[in-house]
Amino acid sequence: MTVQPCVPEPLPPAGIDWETHIPRIASANRALARYDGILQAIPNPRLLLSPLLTQEAVLSSRIEGTQASLEDVLRFEANPKAPIGDAALADIQEIINYREALNTAVEALKTRRLDLALVCDLHRILLAGSRGMDREPGCIRTIQNFIGRDAHIEHAIYVPPAPEDVTGALADWEAYLQREEKDVLVQLSVLKAQFELIHPFCDGNGRIGRMLVPLILYEKGLIGSPMFYISAYLERNRPVYYERLLGVSRDGDWNGWIAFFLHAVEEQAGANGRKATAILDLYTEMKRTVPEVTRSQYAIAAIDALFKTPVFVPSEFYEQTGIPKKTANRLLQQLREQDIITALTEGGGRRATTYVFSRLIAITEGDRL
User: Nearest to residue 92, comparing CAs of 105, 101, 80, 106?
Assistant: First the structure.
């Protein structure tokens, strides 16, 4: 039997059991506040936590089927001319686009509100030059889409709203985004689920939906920097994630989804906080160690470059730091001798050595800290 198109419930949903969620709301908000406190203590979090943003892009894209790792992306960016297969290149482009869209949103929110127009702008960036670039980037769909195991709608697991219902559903979604709710995390959980149920684009709906999480947290004032990375939890619990979303459309089970999402925020706030703290500790250690090792006036510039770009070739290091080439090469040699950086691939002929700051990569990719 063919699954019928979903008819989204007006927001806010009528069946939220607020009393049942009170303990989860309290613990998730506490965890998020602790994480925000850590963020506030980090000097220049956009620099120090930039690898976490790339890892978020990696994991959010992996939920959609990409295979590239954080190291794959950083290695490609350090040396774009290195041989790479078409499939791997397509994966990496999707990840880079995700990061670019999120960075664009962060800049945009300094001067404008988060609204549907901005979401469409982000979608346009997300699909640019990638596998989805022929799927109407930035445009609300005018065709019926579906989620299924094959190309036949008759076998669909989920059928989003009919095209003629999408505009009204999005207007209702945007109105709920702009209003106040009893609790922002519950409101966010509803907004995220409803966006994915509407499935307003021909492609990229899941990635945009996950991107909305830090943007809404920032817009609503729950975090001081739009740096909250939820995809690790969702990727690790992918079957439950999809089942809870399906439960909303199939059974109207908003409470099951809200409970899952609040737990995801609590767990991921803790994990994000541990990673951010470990990165800050590593930065503090490097600020002590690198000047001792190098005796150089350029030590801090070198450290900042390692944290911004933990996989790099010497020419990138020169450009980022502004250190004279001869001095920079001596610095790199000293850092390598102390095992602060290691060679990912050795240079030869006209090919430059690719270096890696492995300890930062290990923190960023670690699931358990």
Answer: 80
Give the integer Cα–Cα distance in Å for 260 and 218: 21
Structure tokens, 337: 């001798």
* Cβ pair 355, 343 in contact under 8 A: yes
Buried (b) or exposed (e) across 251-290, using 16+ Cβ within 10 A?
eebbbbbbbbbbbbbbbbbebbbbbbbbbbebbeebeeeb
Provide the residue type at 272 as one letter: N
- Bridge partners of 354, per DSSP, are 345
What is the Cα 110 distance to its own chain's centre? 19
The residue whose two tokens read 């944290």 is: 307
Give yes or no for a contact between 220 and 351, defined as CB atoms under 8 angstroms apart. no
At 351 the pLDDT is: 85
Give yes or no for residue 1 having a pLDDT over 90: no
Question: For residue 342, what is the enclosing H or E element?
Answer: strand 342-345
- Token readout for 44 is 């220049």
CA atoms of 247 and 254, how far apart (whole Å): 8
Query: Does 149 have pLDDT greater than 90?
Result: no
| 186: nearest Cα among 268, 264, 261, 248 | 261
φ, ψ dihedrals at 345, nearest 5°: -140, 130
Q: Sketch out the chain's domains with CATH numbers.
A: 18-275 (1.10.3290.10), 296-365 (1.10.10.10)
Measured CA to CA, the distance from residue 68 to residue 85 in angstroms comes to 11
Both tokens of 269, joined, read 């706030």
pLDDT digits (tens, 9 = 90+) for 163-180: 999 999 999 999 999 999
Q: Structure tokens of 89?
A: 């290149």
Query: Does residue 200 have a cis peptide bond before it, meaning omega lies within 30 degrees of 0?
Result: no
